[in-house]
């Protein structure tokens, strides 16, 4: 299948084809003794992910674990569907997200407020998962991949209060979710993801420092793909956060409303990203994943809390 890439170490990247786009959201299958899916993608992506798993030899009774870095719909919107397709799989999530997978009604209504009519085409509907199948993680936790190999979970809020990073003892791969930002392999661009309501600068920088301390061999971005240059990339993640926060803070101190703040930050950061100079849809992809309105709104929300 053309949406599967072997990454070595029995790890396979699956393009979940979010909203029909390629290269936007990745799920990862760790095959091994106890197959584990990291990130499900959206609900509308679930059949695509199932087909990919089938082609890799993982049948309905074979998947041992599904783990999500956090419960935003581009990462976990397919959990209910995937749980139904794979009735033996345990669903693993941070304890602050567990109840929303069991009862998604609040999560879906707040997502509908943000996305409106776009919700159905972009994400679809997160179906509930039986709470008996959900394992809620604390600040750390371990997922058994079989044969002594583990996936260790590390609480990494800042992007979202229910976010974890996951490190594979077999490969040294660190699944960063959105805590290190959004990476575009076509251009090498990296941009922060700072949506409301949970963004907090010190917490976000703390999560990046935690990732550095885990000394991973490789970063696996949910958006999008593997990056081998670990130290430089995490350093850049922190720098990007500071740039966006400094600019938004300036807009905030000048009393700008959201629209004017977004326009100013967009203008002042444009030169940082090759994607925005392309006219091949790459810029549209970037805006969908790490849109200036969402990023600036998240930073303003935080600023209003810490320096009203």
From TrEMBL:
UniProt keyword list: Hydrolase
Hydrolase keyword on record: yes
Transmembrane regions listed in the UniProt entry: none
Pfam families noted in UniProt: Lactamase_B (PF00753)
GO molecular function, one term: hydrolase activity
Domain Metallo-beta-lactamase: residue ranges: 24-223
Name of the protein described by the UniProt record: Glyoxylase-like metal-dependent hydrolase (Beta-lactamase superfamily II)
Annotated organism of origin: Streptosporangium sandarakinum
């Amino acid at each position: 299948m053309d949406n599967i890439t072997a990454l070595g170490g029995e790890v396979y990247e699956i393009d979940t084809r979010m909203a029909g786009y390629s290269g936007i959201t990745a799920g990862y299958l760790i095959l091994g003794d106890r197959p584990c899916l990291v990130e499900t993608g959206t609900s509308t992506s679930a059949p695509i992910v199932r087909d990919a798993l089938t082609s890799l030899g993982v049948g309905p009774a074979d998947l041992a674990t599904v783990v999500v870095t956090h419960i935003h719909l581009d990462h976990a919107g397919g959990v209910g569907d995937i749980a139904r397709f794979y009735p033996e799989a345990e669903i693993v999530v941070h304890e602050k997200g567990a109840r929303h997978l069991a009862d998604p009604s609040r999560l879906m209504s707040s997502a509908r407020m943000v996305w409106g009519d776009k919700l159905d085409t972009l994400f679809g509907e997160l179906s509930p998962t039986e709470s008996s199948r959900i394992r809620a993680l604390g600040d750390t936790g371990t997922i058994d991949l079989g044969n002594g190999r583990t996936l260790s979970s590390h609480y990494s809020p800042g992007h979202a209060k229910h976010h974890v990073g996951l490190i594979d003892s077999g490969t040294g791969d660190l699944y960063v979710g959105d805590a290190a930002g959004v990476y575009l392999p076509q251009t090498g661009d990296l941009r922060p993801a700072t949506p409301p309501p949970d963004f907090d600068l010190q917490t976000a920088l703390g999560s990046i420092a935690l990732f550095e301390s885990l000394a991973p061999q490789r970063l696996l971005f949910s958006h999008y793909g593997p990056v081998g240059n670990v130290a430089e990339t995490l350093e850049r993640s922190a720098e990007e956060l500071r740039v966006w926060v400094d600019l938004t803070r300036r807009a905030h101190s000048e009393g700008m409303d959201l629209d004017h703040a977004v326009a100013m930050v967009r203008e002042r950061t444009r030169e940082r990203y090759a994607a925005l100079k392309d006219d091949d849809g790459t810029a549209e992809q970037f805006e969908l994943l790490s849109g200036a309105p969402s990023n600036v709104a998240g930073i303003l929300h935080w600023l209003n809390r810490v320096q009203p």
